[in-house]
Model the fold of this input.
Amino acid sequence: MDFVLQGQNIWLILLIAFSGFLLLGGGNLFGRLSGVKQVGPQEAVMLFNHEDALVLDVREPSEWADGHIAKARHIPLGKLKDRLTELEKFKGKPIIAVCRSGNRSGHACGLLKKSGFENLHNLAGGMSAWEQAGLPKER
Done:
């Protein structure tokens, strides 16, 4: 019986270790493999200021109205597939996708990647992280 419990403990320890790895940023490994880099607010600002990155806000209109990053382009995630032609001229530039938490923007990056965009960045933590960093937003 002790042997069975020890086997279960090993799986529990592995699960905890893997979860910790992802929480501490190891999940970026998966982003790098997919061609989408997770960036924090400060790195997003650097991309915007030094590499003329496009900030693509994929939140819903009501979220956008509550405040957004200056000069961001607003295309809600649900409409992105139909509006990809609007972004064609940005294929050679870095694109930083933004939502409230980083989840929807991750989906947007996947869609953009499938459509041939390559220099993709997902704002980790989304607008919540942006606001926590004390960075400005406009209405």
In short: Confidence is low (pLDDT under 50) at residues 1-5, 25-33. Residues 1-27 form one domain.
